[in-house]
Request: fold
Amino acid sequence: MMSFYFPLDKSDYSYKNSPHPDGVEGSFTCPDSNDPEDSVTYRYEANKRIRAATKRAAEDYGCIFVPLYDKFCEYVKKARIEYFVRDRTHPSIAGHMIIAREWLKAVECAD
Reply:
């Protein structure tokens, strides 16, 4: 299972492409879309909750969880996020290579 999201255009605060943590524990509503600081906080909190729910689901159903978000964050320190993720959630070829490498590592450890 995998889940990640990287905001590319920090000028778009409309939430049309933001993850929504519906069904995730606790109340969680969208802040005022005219407040950039609240928007960024919302997106990061939504991501954190969705990743936690994905990890719990993987554990509950005996699936392998690969912490791809953390790995992508490591790579983003070395290159622009657009090199790895083309539209906030869909990986580029370079992003798919990260996923493939990490998946192979996780599966090898599971044997």
User: Anything to note?
Assistant: The chain has a mean pLDDT of 76. The two ends are 18 Å apart (CA to CA). Helices lie at 36-60, 68-76, 93-110. The longest helix spans residues 36-60.
